[in-house]
Each structure stands twice: as C-alpha cells, then as structure tokens.
C-alpha cells in the first residue's frame, strides 16, 4: 500500500479493531473522545456534490457560574491544487479562488466563525523546484492584492474571520514573505503574521524565496476570540493558534499528529493544524541533494488536518487524500478551565527558562556540564 | 475493558491490523521502524524467571568518514512496588533494592551502559495522600544515603552509569527534593538534578512535600555520552535526556507518547521516558478535590516506557501492566546527523524567543495584540 493510497489512520483502526480495544486505542492515541456534531443537511449534500470531505466535531467546556460559554466554530480547509502547475498563473489563481469559494460557502452553512486555508493556498508549493519563475509571480500584496480582496468579500458576505496564508510581495521593498493575512469579519485587514522559522531541509527550499519573518508573535483580537497564526509560544494570550502548513513525507508525517497537540497542551489553547493534500507535478525536474535521481514532484501532501484542545485531546484528522472541510465548535472557556486545573503557566519556570535561553544564545555561552 | 487490563497499544494493533495497513499505521504513529536486536539467551531466560518483560531495540545512524560510531546502550526500568504500602519502611526499601538489583543484573547481561529507574523508585508514590508520615521517612541523602550506596555498588560491579531518582533529604537544611542522583560507572556520585516544574493538579500533591528544584538544567558528561535528567531545553548539549516519571490516568496517558518525542525532535537528542507500573493502595483514604468520594489509590500507573530518537522515531513501549526492562542501543552520532539535516538549532529563532520570553515574564509586560 503506497503512502498516497492509505486514506486515514482513524479509518484503518475503526475497520479492524474490536469495539473494546478500539476505545482504549483511541483514548491513548487521541485523548478524550471528541463528540461529532450534526451538520446541516444542505451542507452535507453540497459537500458530496462538490466532492470534498466534511466533518464536524465539538469540544465542550464545563458550565461556569460567572462566564457564559464562549462557543465559536472554526473551519479548516485542505485542498488539492485545481489546475496543472504549468497552467497560466491567473487561471490557476482564479480556479483556486473558485474552489475555496465553494468550500467556504459550505463552511458558512455550518456556522463557521473563523476559517483558515492552507499555507500559500493560491499556488502550488513550487518552492521545491528552486525556480524563481513562475512561482514568484504568485506573490501578492497582503493589503491590496486580489486574493485579499477576494477574502474580504468572503468575510463580509459570511460574517467570518478569514485567515489567508499567501506568498506576500511587500511592494515597497520588493521583498517576498510567507504570510498569513488576517481579515476581520467586518472585511477589514486586521494585520498579518509572517512565517518565522523557515526550514532548510530536503526539498523545502523555501529560504531561496523568502526570509525569516519580522512580525513576531502577534495576536489578533477578533469578535470570536484572540487568534494567532503559526508557531507561537502562547505568552501573548492567543486562544486559538492556526498552523497552516504544506508538508510531505516520511520525516514529517509521524510528527504531524504530535506537534500541534503538544503546543495546545503547553500553551493552554486550541491549535488548528492544516496541511494541503495531493501530489503536485512540476514541469522542470529538480534534485533533492540526496544523491537520488531528479524528479518532478515533491511527494504526497498528506492532508490530515485536525484541531487539538488544551487538554491534549484532538479531533480525528481529515483524509490523507481528499479535499476537506473540518468544522469544529470550541468553547473558548476550556482554555482557562484547563489552565486553572493544570496550572502550567503558573507552575512552569518561565523566568528561569528566559534567563537560561538568554544566556544560551550569547557568543560567550559556557554550558553547565558536570564532569568527573 | 478497563484501563489496567489493556496491555499495550502496539500489541492491539499488531493482533488486528492486516499487514499492509499495519505498516502504514506504525509509520504514521511511530515514525521509521525501529529494529529489534537479539538479546542474549541468558538474559531472556532470567527475565522470564524473574517475571518481567525484556525488549531490545536499536537506533542506527549513518556511517561517517571522520567519526566512528558512538554506539551505547541505555536501559529503562519500570516496576511495581514490591511490598504493600503499609509494610515497614526498611522492608519496603530493601525489597525494592532487591527487585532492582535482579533487573539491573539482566541489564548488565544485555550490555547496558547507562540505566535509569523510575521517579522516586525506592517508595510508593504516596504524594497523593498528603500525609507527611510515613512518606517523608523514605527520603535519603543524595550523596550518602543507603540507596545511593546501593547504586554505587551496582555501578562499579557492572561498569554502568546509574540514574537513581529518589526522594532526597538535604540534611544540612532539612529540606526535601525530588532528585535524580547521577552515579558514574566508576561508582562516584557525579551530581544531581532536582525536579524543576512541580505539578499541582488532581492528586499530584507533590508540592506539599518538596519545592521547585534549584539545580537548573545540568548536563553530566559520562564515558558513554552527555546526559541530562528531566525536562531540559537541550541548549547545554545533552545527548540523552532521561525523564523518570510517575504518572496515571486519562489526562496524562494520551500525552505520554507525544511529549518525549516532541522534546527529542526539538532538541536533536535522544529522550528516555520511564513510568512506574501498577496500582498502589494506601491505607488512609484521601480525596481528590473533585467532589468525588474518598479512595485508597491514585489510579493505574501505566508503564509504557520508551525511547525516542532525534528523528522523531521511537521504540514500542513496554507493557502497561508488567515490570519491564527496555534495552536500547543508540548511536549518538545520529544527533549531529539529524541536526545537520534538519538544522533546527540553526534555523530556530532562539535569540528572538529569548527576548520575547524575557519580556513576557516581566511585571510590566504588555502583549502585542492587534485590534480592529
């Protein structure tokens, strides 16, 4: 069975394990069982017709006396590119807009308040090729580009916060960035968060295209909760962290299910991990610096988008092979409840960590090593 | 099926999944397949006779041109308490010494170079009870206690580094600590590492007994590699981090398999997660601050000790229910190989993180929150 045929971990476990063992296995792997919730019939049939997976789950929090529940719904979208990678750029972008448009419409039917798309969603993940052309032509202004305008329309039409990760061209300096644009449900651009930690491994040749972000770990206050994008250490009070990604392969997949969960646990917040799906073929062949033959694709983007809760539980993942929309209802009150219960922020030795980390990055750092 | 009957995740998957799916499921859950290695027949039969599980795995690294392999073997021991929790203290400690003694002998047959026992291994995990007596009587001097002397003998006899986590009494100040004593293979006490982040949740009433550690994140240079104990951010060049634990329950178990792996990945090093096993009954009943009835046990310590490699792969876990010795051969060269390949230490924005964390712990900290 090849890695791009295997549909999902959950499906495999559910088809083969006896009931009693299945519940133990799921408990150990995923934490507390996540409840499904009923999706509106119109959304279900639209998803079938438009050929994407649609799943809905709910994380509940306890009822408090002084605060009402703060239930909101997030939508995570994973999808294939629509046209071949050598189609005219505008056609590719328009086809993606139209695909995302029809998926967001279903998200709206499901009552989604905040939607997030995959990393550099308007384009193939061409950064493996190391070719500048035509990939840099996909870059757009975060504030005034066509894609941002398109998202602003969606935001206003559906009263939805839109997190739109694009390849950004900062027109003033003519620089490129890997940027998530955050658009308020009013349609205004609230701000942007640039990818901070750029990988340099295998075919992730992203550092050829853009540099480390300079926007820090900004938190965006929206009507539906304080959100942040990408890796964030939770110190700024984000309630939901979106992590749009584009990742493939044997190295990454076993880490996929643990990293976002670990971040949710460590930071007492919700995390949303989104990966694209499918295999993207490029006209020019490229090498991977591993002594192997040149090839035309980066590997299989394995989808599997999911949401993790501050108690370490998580929803099942979307498919490894199909487009999909994951709708998850969260009660943001769960964050403080878990924080009060586990007290990581209080019991953690952050001052000490800050001091040690500050020392460790100095040029004259001498580690404390005990020898005999 | 109750949580203390379910033997192990791996066993359940292996009994029910068809071959082709099993390999996909294991790849996604555990990363690259870990090789088993042949354990000597005398060790296998001694383990059967002494009624504990014995497993052996190997992580390989690539052959380099300038450095020879640095293969060493670590041993992780998980075990039940031997006598009832109300037996005389000295009898309880002696029974544990003798159980550990016979398990370490098998570790020696397997060529183990560094062995680590479970958290506060000489005693029941009585901290759930909030009774000071008799649990504080189990505390011993890290430098001169009976248990340290016992471990020094083992270290010399078997030419083995011993990591011995005990309840420490610092005689000078009459204070208690949760401390791992690191004993060199020469038999000398190399130093100690005190538990730094003390949980305050549910029945983990440890803060009633001892305070946050004051030993920082020390690294111990041994003949077999640089090691550290407990949570460590890897900045000091530890090659193996031991994490002796005592943990139970629905909250903790789904996190067990992800935290040590995440640390191994983030720090390019090996991590060894060790948990005790069994249910410990206490004579006096205690409450959990959750409105439920008083009870006599803390829950089931689920064992499942394992080793994770810097590439995110991991060994299967030991049993959830049986005593066990896990022997793992590591080539420490893998750490630098993965570091060179993934470059987290170089691409990570540590200076920025240090700066942000330093700001975040100040009293006058104002987070960067963008509003409309």
UniProtKB/TrEMBL annotation, chains A, B:
**What Enzyme Commission number(s) appear in the record?**
3.5.1.6
Question: What does the record give as its pathway?
Answer: Amino-acid biosynthesis; beta-alanine biosynthesis
- Looking at the record, the residues that make up the CN hydrolase domain are 72-332
Name used for this protein in its record? Beta-ureidopropionase
State the species of origin. Answer: Sander lucioperca (Pike-perch)
Enumerate the catalysed reactions.
Answer: 3-(carbamoylamino)-2-methylpropanoate + H2O + 2 H(+) = (R)-3-amino-2-methylpropanoate + NH4(+) + CO2; 3-(carbamoylamino)propanoate + H2O + 2 H(+) = beta-alanine + NH4(+) + CO2
Instruction: Give the family from UniProt.
Output: Belongs to the carbon-nitrogen hydrolase superfamily. BUP family.
Tell me which InterPro entries the record gives.
Answer: Aliph_Amidase/BUP (IPR050345), C-N_Hydrolase (IPR003010), C-N_Hydrolase_sf (IPR036526)
Keywords, ordered alphabetically = Hydrolase
The superkingdom listed in its UniProt entry is: Eukaryota
Show the coiled coil region(s).
none
Any one GO MF term held by the record is: beta-ureidopropionase activity
Gene3D superfamilies of this UniProt entry?
Carbon-nitrogen hydrolase (3.60.110.10)
Q: Name one GO biological process term.
A: beta-alanine biosynthetic process via 3-ureidopropionate
Transmembrane stretches, start-end: none
